[in-house]
Amino acid sequence: MEQSNVEEGIFTTIEDYERLGSGNHGDEYDSLSSNRFRLLQGSGMRRLEEKGLEHETVAKCFLSGLGSIGRDAQVVAVHKNWSSDSGKVAREEAFRIFSDAVATKCGGDANIKFGWYGAPVDDICQIVSHGFSRFNHKDMRSELHGVGVSLCAARFSIDCVSSSAVDQNGLQHALLCRVILGKVEAIPAGSKQFYPSSSAFDTGVDSLFAPRKYIVWDAFMNSHIQPTYVVSFKAPQPKGTQMNMKSVNMVKPRSAWVSFPTLMLTLSRFLDPRKMSLIHKWHEDFIRNKIPRPQLINKVRHIAGDELLIAVIKKQRRKEVMQVA
C-alpha cells in the first residue's frame, strides 16, 4: 500500500447506495468507553472517526490482508500517532533525513512501504512513546529472517495476528508503520545476520520476488521505521502456520467497489463540467471532514443518478476480475 492510498483512497461500493437508499446511513459512532484505549491515548494516539477517510482506508488494508479469517474479523478502532513530545519529533526528523539520504543513494527512490507489527498493547505503547528496542525482537524462532525488527508487508496483516496478544478488553492490536526499505537483500529463514551484508543494502526481506516480511536492522530501527497507526481488532487465530500468498489473494470483496478518484475520473466522461465541479467540491469537503461519507454519497447520487453510478462500479469490478484471472 502506497502512502497516497492511506491519505486519499475512498472506497465506494454498491452496498453504499443500497444501504443509503433504504434509509440506513450507518451514522452511529462506536461509543466504547475511552478506558478501553487509555493506554494508546496516553501514548499520544488519537482515535480516528469511523466514517473518516483514514480510518476507512487503514481498516480496509488490515482486513484485506487477513485472508479467510477476515470474514470473521472486526476492526474496533483505529488510532493515529499524534504525539508531539520531543522524542517523537526527533524520530520523525530522523525518518525524514534518512528518507532523503536513502533516496539519494538509491537513485531518487527510498522505497518506502507500509508494514504491520503485531505485539501486546503495552509493547506498542512503549514503541510509540520511546521507539523500538532490542527487546521488541527477543524471540529467536528458527523461522525468523535475521536479527532485527521484523514487519509484515501491508498485504499480509494476517502474519502479525498471532503476535498480537489479546488484552484485558478482548482486543488485539497491530501497529502500521512507514518503513524505509531502500535496497533490499534476501535473508534466509533461521539466519543470525544482524546487519547488511554490504554497504549496497539497507534492509532485508524474506523473498525478493514476493516479500511478506521486512527486516530492519537494529542500527536503523528508529530511523527507518515510523509508527503511524494502531488498529485495534477482534479476529480468530489463523489455523496452523502462515497462509500462502494465493490464499490471501483469493479473498474477494463482498461487493463491487471503486476508489473515489477513479469514480470521479469515469464520471467526468458522462457529466458536464459544472456537475463535476460540484462533485469535486463535495469530495474536498469530505476529505476535510466537513461532511460525513453518507452525505457525500447522497450528493453524488443526486447529481449522477444511481443507474450511472452502479454501471461504473460494476464495470470497474469486471475489469479487476479480468486482471486477476
From TrEMBL:
Keywords: Developmental protein, Nucleus, Stress response. The keyword Methyltransferase does not apply. InterPro entries: Poly(ADP-ribose)pol_cat_dom, RCD1/SRO1-5, RST. This is Inactive poly [ADP-ribose] polymerase SRO2. It comes from the Eukaryota. Residues 31-257 form the PARP catalytic domain. GO terms for cellular component: nucleus. Its main location: nucleus. Signal peptide: none annotated. The gene is SRO2. It is found in: Nucleus. Residues 251-322 form the RST domain. GO terms for molecular function: NAD+ poly-ADP-ribosyltransferase activity. Pfam families: RST.
